Amino acid sequence: MQNPKESDLIYDWNTHKKGGSSFKSTVEFDDETLRDGLQGPSVTDPSIEDKIEILHLMDSLGIHTAALGLPGAGPRAQADVMRLAQEIADHNLNIKANCAARTVEADIIPIIEISDEVGIPIEACTFIGSSPIRQYAEGWDIDFLLRQTENAVEFAVKRGLPVMYVTEDTVRAHPDDIRKLYTTAINFGAQRVCVCDTVGHIIPAGVKNLVSYVREVVESTGEDVGIDWHGHRDRGFDVANTFAAIEAGATRVHGCALGVGERVGNTPMDLILANCKLLGWIDHDLSDLKVYCQKVSETCNFPIPKNYPIIGEDAYRTGTGVHAAAIIKAERKGAKWLADRVYSGVPAEWFGGEQKIEIGPMSGESNIVYWLKKRNLEPKKEWVTAIFNKAKSSHRLLKDEEIYEIINSVS
């Protein structure tokens, strides 16, 4: 086959037949790193200077909306939200702002004041618990929830704020309550409703059931209202649930860099973006994805596991002889994209990475020759033999300094 295209060499079962993933060009992204992400018990709240840098990285990745915080939480939170909103205005960033607020006027008023001061619209994300278990624990009933919903949404809308109405713990709420709450919020001017897996309870099949139901509720109002999905990762279904929500009709999905957040965290925004890119649903430039994750990791004191998908240290790294040989053969064919895909389901070049061939106990001589040539060193037979023998007696990959020591000892 002469000069094959990628589509000639990879059959994509993700798009096989009618049931496969369809193109979702309208899906949007809401980044919760600087709000829900900072509720993580092991996370450090970054300085405002670091938050500004993270905000710019979100913008560079084509993320549509950033949660700037909950300004009703106190003076520092309000000051940070003000500064971030001012940054969006001063630099004419494409990313839009939103802020969390309980369904009480005291939380909504700071958002109104910041929006007026800075001169940009700030979406008010007014939230209230909706599930029977939450109602029982709080001593609420559905009539109380409806009054809170009506008062908060009407208050924000009359003062010029766009509103996303958020039902906490939607995934365990009764269908009748969901219908009443969303219908009330929409009737009083909410432009979006947010379906929340606040406690990480649901699985993908349940997400499709729930979001499909919410879509029917929204359509029954006759209003053009967006549907958001906000998921947590307590049972490990976070990414799968987000894509199930998109397939079922969610028009915006939430996430945090590296999945930071309450308890074990939120859906990782980096994995949402990367997989939407891999599915062909978006065409964003994600070359800053690794920088974005590293910045959040450093400033939030949240280490990136070495085997973390897409941007982890081991994401494109192998010491296995068979794998390395295939990559090397692909490189010799003169097509960089081929070497980047032959043993990787994720093209490293799209996300600021590169394929790396290391040397260890499962390596062949081709690994060693490649490693030496990559560093402009002649693959002398005595070097290759010495490194090979050391690798085979090792219980892990050799570090670069160990390989150089072997070379020096043989020279």
Characterization of the model:
This protein has an 8-stranded parallel beta barrel with strand order 1-2-3-4-5-6-7-8, surrounded by 7 helices. A two-stranded parallel ribbon has the order 9-10. With 411 residues, the chain is an alpha/beta fold. Helix 3 links the parallel strand 2 and strand 3. Helix 4 (105-118) packs parallel to helix 6, helix 8 packs parallel to helix 9 (238-248) and helix 15 (381-392) packs across helix 16 (400-410). The protein has helices at residues 6-9, 48-60, 75-90, 105-118, 132-138, 142-158, 175-187, 204-221, 238-248, 269-278, 289-300, 321-332, 336-339, 365-374, 381-392, 400-410, and strands at residues 28-31, 65-67, 96-102, 122-129, 163-168, 192-197, 226-231, 252-255, 317-318, 356-357. It is 45% helix and 12% strand.
Q: How would you describe the shape?
A: elongated
Number of helices: 16
Which secondary-structure class do the elements indicate? Answer: alpha/beta
Q: What gap, in angstroms, lies between the N and C termini? A: 44 Å
Please give the CATH architecture of the largest domain. Answer: Alpha-Beta Barrel
Portion in helices: 40-55%
Number of domains: 2
Short description:
The chain is an alpha/beta fold.
Key phrases:
411 residues, elongated, TIM Barrel, 8-stranded parallel barrel, alpha/beta, 10 strands, two-stranded parallel sheet
Helix-strand blueprint:
Elements: H1 6-9, E1 28-31, H2 48-60, E2 65-67, H3 75-90, E3 96-102, H4 105-118, E4 122-129, H5 132-138, H6 142-158, E5 163-168, H7 175-187, E6 192-197, H8 204-221, E7 226-231, H9 238-248, E8 252-255, H10 269-278, H11 289-300, E9 317-318, H12 321-332, H13 336-339, E10 356-357, H14 365-374, H15 381-392, H16 400-410
Parallel strand pairs: 1-2, 1-8, 2-3, 3-4, 4-5, 5-6, 6-7, 7-8, 9-10
